[in-house]
């Protein structure tokens, strides 16, 4: 409270004390500003008529020091114009003299609530600084954020593990942004999407004439990530001979292009990711043990979405805003039934599946709210009781047909989530790729879907 009238200070002081507020008093602009600097102030009551300076002169200084600090201006009826000017300068509101006690308390309460909300949002923004599109406030995801912040400044290699769709590349990008290499290149390599015979050339580069079609010298992606970060997704799919050369890059910090006898120094930080048990791959002889330990200096484990359900409403709302703006839709939220379905679904495809479901719902929605019937069939089925009915009508049912239709529905959904990649769909369904391929043909699923 910055006011030089003793009676007003006594009245307001007693009023605030009885309402349970801690308060400080100052009679000059200079003393008030010093108090704002020294104490943790949540609301300022500012008189415009002060002995050393006008409140209108002090207000911009307060807002410069803390732009989110609510200032309630106290003014006489004769200076309402000044109060309006104070509002233009950023005041929260104004109280004309003589005032009603209830009016002052109401404004102080509103200002304090606003301050609390702003501080909470600023703290959340600070925690998420550099985290890019990773959204969440659950304990599990907060642990991931903390580990990312601590690991990012180092040069050490990082292994990100988690199920498909949990956001491993987003984590790698956030680590890059938070690191001293943030201004350098971030080079992602999805190793499972590159044929084995091309991966080595892609990573290490090649010289002219190294193989048929090598008509020019070409820099590899490891070199392209010099002074930056190389992200190797699905690192467990790399062939053994390429693993050996990758190990040399990590140990010697140099590469040798395919077909060359010259080595080139590289300064590249490696972040690798996998959705498989890489240690089991080591034990079964499919992955080099020494490379595993070189990659696994720091491990960041991303929890599946079903283990951080408290983040689902936040994620769903985030995706809704993104796709509503992208598609110029007026959708603003979810019905209670739709949000319940989102929150209870088991999410085999994790955050990627949730994003796809929300995008679909936003595009197909006909109103300003996403309803249950706007969600994918798999979510609706689980919300409405899970598996198809087991009731058998008097006329009987075609058992094979019903089971086949259900199998086909699951396969189509898995293919949709995996972008039509059968190997990824097989992982979602816990089937071998061969078995899934046979079922696709047997059930007559169209080739474009697969």
Helix and strand arrangement:
Layout: H1 6-18, H2 29-38, E1 44-47, H3 55-65, E2 71-76, H4 80-88, E3 93-97, H5 101-127, H6 139-151, E4 158-161, H7 168-178, E5 186-190, H8 196-204, E6 205-206, E7 218-219, H9 221-224, E8 228-233, H10 240-252, E9 254-255, E10 264-265, E11 268-274, H11 278-283, H12 289-295, E12 298-301, H13 312-326, E13 333-334, H14 336-344, H15 350-364, E14 369-370, H16 377-383, H17 399-417, H18 422-429, H19 433-442
Parallel strand pairs: 1-2, 2-3, 4-11, 4-12, 5-8, 8-11, 13-14
Antiparallel strand pairs: 6-7, 9-10
Helix pairs in contact: 2-3, 13-15, 14-16, 17-18, 18-19
Structure overview:
There is one protein chain. The protein is α/β, with parallel strands linked by helices. The protein folds into 4 domains: 6-126, 3-Layer(aba) Sandwich (Rossmann fold); 139-303, P-loop containing nucleotide triphosphate hydrolases (Rossmann fold), CATH 3.40.50; 307-383, Helicase, Ruva Protein, domain 3 (Orthogonal Bundle), CATH 1.10.8.60; 399-449. The protein is built from 19 helices and 14 strands. Helix 17 (399-417) crosses helix 18 (422-429) and helix 18 (422-429) packs across helix 19 (433-442). The longest helix has 27 residues, at 101-127. The chain is flat, with a radius of gyration of 31 Å. The model is unreliable at 126-130 (pLDDT under 50).
């Amino acid at each position: 409270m910055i006011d030089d009238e003793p009676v007003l200070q006594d009245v307001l002081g007693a009023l605030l004390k009885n309402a349970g507020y801690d308060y400080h008093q100052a009679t000059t602009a200079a003393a008030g500003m010093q108090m704002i600097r020294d104490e943790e102030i949540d609301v300022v009551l500012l008189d415009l008529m002060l002995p050393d300076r006008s409140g209108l002169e002090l207000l911009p200084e307060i807002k410069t020091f803390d732009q989110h600090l609510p200032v309630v201006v106290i003014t006489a009826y004769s200076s309402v114009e000044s109060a309006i000017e104070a509002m233009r300068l950023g005041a929260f509101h104004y109280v004309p003299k003589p005032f009603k006690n209830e009016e002052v308390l109401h404004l102080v309460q509103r200002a304090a609530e606003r301050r609390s909300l702003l501080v909470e949002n600023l703290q959340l923004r600070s925690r998420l600084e550099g985290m890019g599109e990773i959204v969440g406030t659950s304990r599990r995801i907060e642990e991931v954020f903390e580990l990312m912040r601590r690991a990012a400044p180092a040069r050490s290699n990082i292994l990100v593990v988690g199920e498909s769709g949990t956001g491993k590349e987003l984590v790698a990008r956030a680590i890059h942004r938070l690191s001293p290499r943030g201004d350098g290149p971030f080079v992602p390599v999805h190793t499972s999407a590159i044929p084995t015979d091309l991966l080595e050339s892609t990573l290490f580069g090649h010289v002219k004439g190294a193989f048929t079609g090598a008509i020019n010298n070409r820099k590899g992606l490891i070199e392209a990530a010099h002074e930056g970060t190389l992200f190797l997704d699905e690192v467990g799919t790399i062939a053994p001979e390429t693993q050996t050369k990758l190990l040399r890059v990590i140990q010697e910090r140099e590469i040798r292009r395919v077909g060359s006898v010259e080595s080139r120094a590289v300064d590249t930080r490696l972040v690798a990711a996998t959705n498989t048990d890489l240690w089991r791959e080591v034990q079964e002889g499919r992955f080099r043990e020494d490379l595993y330990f070189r990659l696994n200096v720091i491990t960041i484990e991303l929890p599946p979405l079903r283990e951080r359900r408290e983040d689902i409403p936040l994620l769903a709302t985030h995706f809704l805003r993104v796709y509503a703006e992208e598609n110029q839709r007026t959708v603003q939220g979810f019905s209670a039934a739709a949000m319940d379905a989102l929150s209870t679904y088991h999410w085999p495809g994790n955050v990627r599946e949730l994003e796809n479901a929300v995008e679909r719902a936003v595009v197909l929605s006909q109103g300003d709210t996403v309803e249950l019937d706007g969600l994918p069939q798999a979510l609706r089925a689980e919300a409405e009781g899970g598996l198809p009915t087991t009731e058998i009508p008097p006329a009987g049912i075609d058992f094979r047909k019903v089971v086949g239709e259900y199998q086909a529905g699951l396969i189509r959904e898995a293919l949709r989530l995996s972008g039509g990649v059968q190997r990824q769909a097989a992982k979602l369904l816990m089937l071998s790729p061969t078995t899934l391929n046979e079922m696709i043909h047997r059930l007559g699923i169209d080739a474009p879907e697969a």
